[in-house]
Sequence to fold (72 residues):
Amino acid sequence: MIKTSTNYDMVKYVYNELEENKKTKFKINTYLDPSLEKEVEAFFEVKEALDSYFEKPSEVVISKIKDYSLMK
Fold:
């Protein structure tokens, strides 16, 4: 694999934070380099796993926090 992008670029791509011109170049590179494409897929799998483990507070907890913050 020819290293044309960094892990940082991949993370930004996965989280849709890569600048538009870099995103286009990055997509082209994934089409041209199967090992890069596999690496990006692995990053997406990690992101999906992390997202599934993220716990969102219940509405009751959020409401209590808001109520408490208004008391001050």
About this structure: The CA atoms of residues 43 and 71 lie 43 Å apart. The chain has a mean pLDDT of 88.
